[in-house]
Amino acid sequence: MSTGIVYAPALAHEKIGHPECNARISHILPFLEKAGVLADLVNVAAVPATAVQLEQVHNKALVNHVQRVSHSGGGLLDYGDTYATAESYELARLAAGAGMTAVDAIMRGEIQNAFALVRPPGHHAEQDRVSGFCLFNNVAVAARYAQREHGVQRVLIVDFDVHHGNGTQDIFYRDDSVLFVSVHLFVPRLFYPGTGSKREMGFAGGQGYTLNVPLMPYVGDAGYGRIFQELIRPKAAAFQPDIILVSAGFDAHWRDPLAMAGLSLTGYAQMGQALAQLADELCDGRILFILEGGYEIDVLSHGILNLFYTLLGQDNIIDPYGPMPQEEPDISSLLDELKQSHLIY
Ligand SMILES: [Zn+2]
To answer: Residue 3 belongs to what H/E stretch?
Structure first.
């Protein structure tokens, strides 16, 4: 079985001086080629999501708002720093469609797994609100599409971007067919977006189908390894997903300029390996990674490369920066609390 790459870099979605810039992935294909993995990947061409497909997870007003601002020449979409250019509406539809086309190829058995390298990112976009550089929620659109078009019943979404996936949580908060797990830095009032506390666990029928792992600063490879083994693995095994989608942000690396987390490239690669293995055990290897954040460009490139090694079944890990140069905190008490409230034994 083979590994797909979907590439939708949104080169014309660009604002001078903004960290979410096209240089993040504009040079990734030559980088992957030089590393010798590009030739092994199946190119999956992205098709833009239609407004109707976006409206499976967003309300019409949001979709219209992005279209209106973009088609009037661009500008800020919110009171923060989420922007659109004249081309952003089409480019954001392409980013959302990239996940859908990857889902098609995986569900038809043409490829086993894939990584969608897309911009703009998606996981902060809520049902009715753009936010945090995100226009449309790419991973949520892909999850709903898998359910509607391919008869998928249960989708596991794992979000390891350093920021809480508030948009994805909002969209699936009452839903027991999507298990949403977010591991993120949590320093309310200081660190964006401030949501994702351990008490946010879903609502009504979705109670227990949102698992937030809110971290103190500088949790690193050891902590993330424990979170996977002690929380995510048992929670996912009980849920029995038909496919795993991953909101893959690389801003939890210790060198990232926007955050204060402690993962290394090796830790990232090990998490990717653990997720791919989980997909093998639970859902015939069906796993799709969709790019979210990651603002240290060389770290991002290497993180993407290592994930492709993993998806191709190779155990190479390239880590030029090594581990975080400081001790990481012990997270035992957080893990104990979460095991109790989520009935994980
Ligand atoms: Zn992020």
So the answer is: strand 3-8
Confidence grade of residue 215 (pLDDT, cut at 50, 70, 90):
very high
Q: What is the DSSP string of 137-168?
A: -HHHHHHHHHHHHH----EEEEE-SSS--HHH
CA 242 to ligand 1 centroid distance, Å: 26
Q: Give dist(CA 68, CA 86) in Å, integer.
A: 10
Question: Domain holding 150: CATH number?
Answer: 3.40.800.20
pLDDT value for 79? 86
User: Which residues are within 8 A (CB) of 314 and not within 5 positions of it... i.e. 6 or more apart?
Assistant: none
What's the 294 CA to ligand 1 centre distance in angstroms? 6
Distance, CA 291 to ligand 1 centroid (Å)? 10
- Domain housing 103: 3-341
Indicate if the alpha-carbon torsion angle 192, 13, 10, 97 is positive or negative: positive
Q: Is 243 helix (H, G, I), strand (E, B) or coil?
A: strand
Q: Average pLDDT for residues 240-248, to the nearest whole number?
A: 98
When pLDDT is cut at 50, 70 and 90, the band that residue 345 belongs to is confident
Q: Which of 13, 58, 123, 124 is catalytic?
A: 124
Q: Is 124 a catalytic residue?
A: yes
Mean pLDDT of the chain: 97
Crossing angle of helices 297-311 and 265-283, in 10° steps, is 30
Report the separation in Å between the CA atom of 141 and the middle of ligand 1, taken as the mean of its atom positions: 18
Q: Are 156 and 236 in contact (CB under 8 A)?
A: yes
| Close Cβ partners of 129 (under 8 Å, ≥ 6 residues apart) | 62, 78, 167
Give the distance (Å) from ligand 1 centre to CA of residue 107: 28
Of the pLDDT bands very low, low, confident and very high (cuts 50, 70, 90), residue 80 is: confident
Q: Tell me how far the alpha carbon of residue 151 lies from the centroid of ligand 1, in angstroms.
A: 31
Total domains in the fold of the chain: 1
For 153, counting Cβ atoms within 10 Å of its Cβ (0-12 exposed, 13-18 middle, 19+ buried), the class is exposed
Residue 1 has pLDDT above 80, yes or no: no
Cis (ω within 30 of 0) for the bond into 257? no
